[in-house]
Each structure stands twice: as structure tokens, then as C-alpha cells.
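User: quick one, sequence for these C-alpha cells?
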């Protein structure tokens, strides 16, 4: 099984507001950058989109290590929130509907295909690929009317 390293970040100018995401995929010295955004979105949505788009870009089942500064994404998986939301009819502990449900469902599909591990890192702390992803995500946000951080 191929081993892929994925680095992701999302950005939003305002919350909600114009946003962008970036994903860097690495496999055997080959790097692929995926990027995009939405004109009216949230930071959490962009963080999650980066992960989903990255996993969906893989053409076969892979072992993937995802490095992200998003507690929203990492904790949802590592702390079992995603499983709880499904069991509770896509409702959170406070009984409110889970936001970004369609993206969580897409991620859930990808987690069935790929062997995924998550590593949370502190954002803006000098991690080379997190910094690159942040720069690209902000650029995508600006393209959609956002302002530079």
C-alpha cells in the first residue's frame, strides 16, 4: 500500500466570509498541491474541505498521514465525535445539527477506503508545510474577496 503524507490548512476572511483551502500531498518525492475556496464560507469548512479534497484525489487505497492545525477536524476523528454524530442522527451533544454534514459524510467515505492517521500541530509555529498551506489558503481567500491576514 502506498504511503502518502498530506498537509492541510484552511483560511477565512471573516467567519463567515471568503475562504480558501490548501492541501499538499507527498509521495516518494513527488508533491501535488490542491487548492480552492468559496466566496461565503467558514474557517472550519475550509479546514475540512482541504482534507476531503486531498483524500478524494488519491486514485487507489493508500496509507495516509494527515498533518493539520485544525482541532475541529483532528478532534472529530481522534476523539470519536464523528462516530457519535452518526449514532445520534447527525446531531451534536447539544442536539443541534452537525455543521458541514455533507463534507463529514464524504470524509467518512474516504476513511473506509484509506488507512488514515491524523497529527495535530500548532498553526503558525514554523512547520514548513503548514506554513505553505496557510499561505496558499490565504491567497485563495483573497482571490474570493478576502483580505490578507
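Assistant:
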Amino acid at each position: 500500500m502506498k504511503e502518502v503524507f498530506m498537509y492541510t490548512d484552511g483560511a477565512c476572511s471573516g467567519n463567515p466570509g471568503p475562504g480558501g483551502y490548501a492541501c499538499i500531498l507527498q509521495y516518494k518525492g513527488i508533491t501535488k498541491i490542491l487548492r480552492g475556496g468559496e466566496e461565503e464560507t467558514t474557517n472550519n469548512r475550509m479546514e475540512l474541505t482541504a482534507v476531503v479534497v486531498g483524500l478524494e484525489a488519491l486514485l487507489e487505497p493508500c496509507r495516509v498521514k494527515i498533518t493539520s492545525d485544525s482541532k475541529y477536524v483532528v478532534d472529530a476523528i481522534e476523539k470519536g465525535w464523528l462516530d457519535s454524530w452518526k449514532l445520534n442522527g447527525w446531531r451534536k451533544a447539544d442536539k443541534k445539527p452537525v455543521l458541514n454534514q455533507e463534507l463529514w459524510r464524504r470524509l467518512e467515505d474516504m476513511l473506509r477506503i484509506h488507512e488514515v492517521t491524523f497529527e495535530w500541530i500548532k498553526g503558525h509555529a514554523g512547520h514548513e508545510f503548514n506554513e505553505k498551506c496557510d499561505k496558499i489558503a490565504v491567497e485563495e481567500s483573497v482571490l474570493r474577496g478576502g483580505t490578507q491576514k
